[in-house]
Each structure stands twice: as C-alpha cells, then as structure tokens.
Amino acid sequence: MAPTGPPPNVKSKKEKQSAAKEDNIADALAHREREGTSFRTLALLFNVLCPTLADRARGGLSRKESHVHQQRLALAVGGGATGLVQAVG
Question: How far is residue 35 CA from its own chain's centroid?
C-alpha cells in the first residue's frame, strides 16, 4: 500500500502562509531600521499586527520558535527542507 499524505519536504499551505508572514515581519523591521517608521504605519503597510512588530523589535520569538520545548522534534536550524532535524529526548 502506498503511503498517504504529502510527499516529504513539501510545505503545506499553512506553512507557506506562515513563512510569508515571517518575511513580512522581517521586511517591516528592516524598513523601521532604515526609515524610523512607526509600528502602526508598518503594520498597515506590511499587513502585520502592530503588537507583533513591537514584540519582535524587543527580541520576541515567533510562536513556532517559542514553543520548540513542547515539540518532539526540534526546529531545523537554517536548513529549510534540506536541514537536519534532531530528535529531542
């Protein structure tokens, strides 16, 4: 019997949306560094919540990063689909 589900290393729609949001946050914070734009204006321009931008600017983590300790597998660091994932515990 053939395995069901998506092929390995294929991102789901939710994962793609999450990556796009993270990119928007990074772009907004980079824009703030260059231009000094307010969080409220950046939130409107980059379609990101204002408190999220403020939290990230203070060093806050994404939801995915902040809940790593609750996962059975650790996040792949910087490798994307080709990165190695280490088993925890």
Answer: 23
